[in-house]
Amino acid sequence: MRKRLNVISMKKLIFIFLVFPCLSYSQDSTSRWSLGLAASTDLCYRWLTVQDELSAMKDVFDSLERPKFGYGIGGILGYSINSKNSIQAGLGFSNKGYAIDTLIEARMYDIVYNYNYIEIPFKYIRKIKEVNNFHPFFSIGINTDIFLSQKSNYRLFGLNGRNSFNDNNSISKAIVGTSVSIGFQKIIQSNFIFQFEINMRQWVNPLVQNPSSRYLNSAGFSFAFMRKF
Predict the structure, then answer these.
(1) Are 85 and 124 in contact, with CB atoms under 8 Å apart?
(2) Of 115, 42, 36, whose CA–CA distance to 72 is shortest?
(3) What is the pLDDT of residue 3?
(4) Please, what is the Cα angle at 59 between 53 and 64, to 5 degrees?
(5) Any idea what DSSP says for residue 30?
């Protein structure tokens, strides 16, 4: 009899150990917090402002400069305020800049200005309507980018390979920008979230200032995988 009771008690114990984690896992799906990884790629370009007497210089640079591809990667932390509203913050690395096609007098071409930053984004997300576990949304946000380093390079006519140089302009130690985006979230197995968005960013303080001010802008897309916890 005692042996039978021991067997029953053991079965109950095994049942508790097997079922309790499952119950805990299902409860996670109601959590307001989520944590994950995000990556992005975008087309970076610059907006130039100059003093009135240098307007001719602006026209020259506008005709020479072109966008370049940038990228970013980092962590993301989300909090769901309710079923429609949420906020997200992150910390990561990003590469930005712009390019120049050709400087004939200097015999240089394909000149690429690369600027590396620690990126700290923060945004508000408003979901529109759920459709088959898809949650379309729009968002507005603010980005703070702390300057790390720059590594620019170029090609010379008649020579192979790329050469590097330092941008001697006074580069801002931090730039702040605004962002807008549209996208969707997809809930996967209750606890996981896939997020995709198309965004545009405009920085409000210049990358370089005096006598001309260069402001960075970008347009691209990003995606993230998050888990509720």
Answers:
(1) yes
(2) 42
(3) 44
(4) 135
(5) T
The DSSP annotation for 146-205 comes to EEEEE-EEEEETT--S-EEE---S-B-SEEEEEEEEEEEEEEETTTEEEEEEEEEEEESS
Tokens of 33: 């917090």
SS3 24: helix
Place of tokens 């007497």: 53
Q: What is the pTM of this model?
A: 0.79
pLDDT tens digits for range 56-96 = 777 777 788 889 999 999 999 999 999 899 999 999 999 99
pLDDT confidence bin for 21, thresholds 50/70/90: very low
DSSP characters for 98-142? EEEEEETTTTEEEEEEEEEEEEEEEEEEEE---BTTEEEEEEEEE
Residue type (1 letter), 188 = I
State how far Cα 135 lies from the chain centre.
20
- Residue type, position 55, single letter: S
Q: Side chain identity at 89, as an amino acid letter?
A: A
